[in-house]
């Protein structure tokens, strides 16, 4: 696009006078009478949009003149109003006009729509490529910023709201702050963290937080709720909004719908939404599509591994995926990789994983298999299957007697698991190892697939058997590849890995905004 800085004009405090008629067909001089009446009333007029003569006119005036303009037009067209030829004469106040020169109006309109900005009026002089856009005053600064970014190639500002600043959230904020200048230089994108929240309170900074962000959150007196965030974004006319959910909160995912409706794209490492009942899952997808918003969640299954993107690409290209199998949990990968190779007791390995921060504070969250089950269900739904969580066959690794006791008691009785798992380990075939796997199989062309989460024994020389450390592995079987699966393997856990995956989703959204 070609434009000069002096070609953008910005006028606030304007009103639109709407002059409408049911049927002006064949009438001559209607528009002339409108302008004559307003000129005699000493009202400066700017025509922004002239509809077909039979429908009416939209005229721009200063808001101080709007009431007088409506009155004089009502007087001028009293006979036509009485006969019904003129149906309505009214004003729309609190609007602003932005005038500019651009070659590609469609691109600008697309960017505005993506930010929930829909011009009230648009007038284009095709020969001069000059465009006038009228928007509400509550969106004028945001509109101006978007237009300037498009026609002058100024850095696109992307405003981030980070929800949850535990291990992943804190690491993500540090990564964004550390990389922001380099991203601005290389990508022409200015990432600004303008909101940070935990379960109790939320802090805002329109200019963008710096390394003192945690102090500002600590000092904030605003309670943490989505209404505060939505109001902040509207009051400050923030464009290119992304909310990032780094929590494991069942409650926060209930806000996704409202956020999408209010101009936010979504990035989430929180697996809960994608495993809610299928009706809620589909309702959000409909809302996202309706509002031209996107929802990325690559880290839901493979942390920093490009798993969901790969499956989406295969599925959308028409490739028939026949099975997805693998070790989905970095925690249980670490536990069974070590338990299979070492002489230590099962409880020793679990305690070691807990001390290293690989498990949840209560290891039963990992040992229950629910986390693996959620990941498997997410992949099933990427294939348009309508499975529910209740369809999954889950082998819980925790004895029933220890399911309902306190965390402290469970940890103190962890050795009660040793005898059972020692027996499982010894009863394997020679050169076999234990792996806790998720397996999506069956006829995946039907409405539902078969989902199993269980402990299995595999040859130590197999792809699953050669897994090391806390890595995850995913085998994707397709009709084209036959018995040779696509294998994606790598770090499946850790705050840095997950935060980097979330950061990748943020950049993908930012580049396509």
From TrEMBL:
<keyword id="KW-0457">Lysine biosynthesis</keyword>
<keyword id="KW-0418">Kinase</keyword>
<feature type="domain" description="Homoserine dehydrogenase catalytic">
    <location>
        <begin position="306"/>
        <end position="507"/>
    </location>
</feature>
<keyword id="KW-0808">Transferase</keyword>
<comment type="pathway">
    <text>Amino-acid biosynthesis; L-threonine biosynthesis; L-threonine from L-aspartate: step 3/5.</text>
</comment>
<dbReference type="InterPro" id="IPR054352">
    <property type="entry name" value="ACT_Aspartokinase"/>
</dbReference>
<protein>
    <recommendedName>
        <fullName>Homoserine dehydrogenase</fullName>
        <ecNumber>1.1.1.3</ecNumber>
    </recommendedName>
</protein>
<dbReference type="InterPro" id="IPR045865">
    <property type="entry name" value="ACT-like_dom_sf"/>
</dbReference>
<keyword id="KW-0521">NADP</keyword>
<comment type="pathway">
    <text>Amino-acid biosynthesis; L-methionine biosynthesis via de novo pathway; L-homoserine from L-aspartate: step 3/3.</text>
</comment>
<dbReference type="InterPro" id="IPR036291">
    <property type="entry name" value="NAD(P)-bd_dom_sf"/>
</dbReference>
<dbReference type="InterPro" id="IPR011147">
    <property type="entry name" value="Bifunc_Aspkin/hSer_DH"/>
</dbReference>
<dbReference type="Pfam" id="PF03447">
    <property type="entry name" value="NAD_binding_3"/>
</dbReference>
<keyword id="KW-0486">Methionine biosynthesis</keyword>
<keyword id="KW-0560">Oxidoreductase</keyword>
<comment type="similarity">
    <text>Belongs to the homoserine dehydrogenase family.</text>
</comment>
<dbReference type="InterPro" id="IPR019811">
    <property type="entry name" value="HDH_CS"/>
</dbReference>
<keyword id="KW-0067">ATP-binding</keyword>
<keyword id="KW-0791">Threonine biosynthesis</keyword>
<dbReference type="Pfam" id="PF00742">
    <property type="entry name" value="Homoserine_dh"/>
</dbReference>
<dbReference type="InterPro" id="IPR005106">
    <property type="entry name" value="Asp/hSer_DH_NAD-bd"/>
</dbReference>
<keyword id="KW-0028">Amino-acid biosynthesis</keyword>
<dbReference type="Pfam" id="PF22468">
    <property type="entry name" value="ACT_9"/>
</dbReference>
<keyword id="KW-0547">Nucleotide-binding</keyword>
<feature type="domain" description="Aspartokinase ACT">
    <location>
        <begin position="20"/>
        <end position="77"/>
    </location>
</feature>
<dbReference type="InterPro" id="IPR001342">
    <property type="entry name" value="HDH_cat"/>
</dbReference>
<feature type="domain" description="Aspartate/homoserine dehydrogenase NAD-binding">
    <location>
        <begin position="164"/>
        <end position="298"/>
    </location>
</feature>
């Amino acid at each position: 696009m070609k434009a000069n800085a002096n070609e953008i004009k910005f006028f606030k405090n304007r009103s639109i006078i709407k002059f409408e008629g049911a049927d002006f067909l064949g009438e001559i001089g209607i528009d002339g009478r409108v302008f004559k009446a307003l000129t005699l009333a000493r009202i400066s007029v700017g025509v922004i949009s002239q509809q077909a003569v039979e429908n009416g006119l939209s005229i721009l005036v200063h808001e101080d003149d709007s009431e007088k303009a409506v009155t004089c037009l009502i007087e001028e067209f009293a006979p036509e109003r009485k006969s019904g030829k003129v149906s309505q004469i009214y004003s729309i106040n609190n609007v602003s006009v932005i005038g500019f020169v651009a070659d590609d109006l469609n691109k600008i309109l697309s960017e505005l729509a993506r930010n929930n900005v829909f011009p009230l009026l648009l007038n284009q002089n095709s020969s001069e490529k000059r465009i006038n856009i009228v928007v509400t005053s509550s969106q004028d600064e945001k509109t101006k910023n978007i237009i300037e970014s498009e026609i002058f190639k100024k850095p696109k500002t992307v405003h981030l709201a980070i929800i949850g600043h535990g291990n992943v959230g804190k690491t993500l904020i540090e990564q964004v702050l550390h990389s922001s200048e380099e991203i601005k230089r290389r990508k022409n994108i200015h990432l600004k963290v303008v909101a940070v929240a935990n379960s109790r309170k939320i802090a805002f900074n329109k200019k963008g937080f710096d390394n003192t962000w945690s102090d500002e959150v600590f000092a904030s007196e605003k309670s943490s709720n989505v209404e505060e965030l939505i109001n902040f974004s509207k009051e400050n006319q923030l464009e290119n909004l992304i909310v990032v959910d780094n929590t494991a909160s069942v409650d926060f995912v209930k806000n996704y719908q409202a956020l999408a409706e209010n101009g936010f794209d979504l990035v989430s490492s929180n697996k809960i939404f994608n495993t809610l009942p299928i009706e809620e899952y589909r309702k959000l997808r409909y809302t996202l599509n309706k509002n031209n918003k996107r929802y990325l969640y690559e880290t839901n299954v493979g942390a920093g591994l490009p798993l969901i993107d790969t499956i989406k690409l295969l599925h959308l290209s028409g490739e028939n995926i026949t099975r997805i199998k693998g070790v989905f949990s970095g925690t249980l990968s670490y536990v069974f990789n070590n338990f299979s190779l070492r002489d230590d007791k099962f409880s020793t390995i679990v305690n070691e994983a807990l001390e290293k921060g690989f498990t949840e504070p209560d290891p039963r969250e990992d040992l229950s298999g629910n986390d693996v089950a959620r990941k498997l269900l997410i992949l099933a739904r990427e294939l348009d299957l309508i499975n529910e969580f209740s369809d999954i066959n889950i082998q819980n690794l925790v004895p029933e007697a220890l399911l309902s006791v306190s965390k402290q008691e469970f940890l103190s009785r962890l050795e009660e698991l040793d005898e059972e798992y020692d027996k499982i380990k010894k009863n394997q075939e020679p050169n076999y190892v234990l792996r806790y796997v998720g397996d999506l199989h069956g006829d995946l062309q039907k409405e539902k697939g078969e989902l199993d989460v269980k402990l299995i024994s595999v040859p130590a020389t197999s792809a699953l058997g050669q897994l090391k450390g806390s890595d995850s592995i995913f085998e994707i079987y397709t009709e084209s590849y036959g018995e040779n699966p696509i294998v994606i393997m790598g770090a499946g856990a850790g705050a840095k890995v997950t935060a980097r995956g979330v950061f990748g989703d943020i950049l993908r959204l930012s580049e396509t905004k």
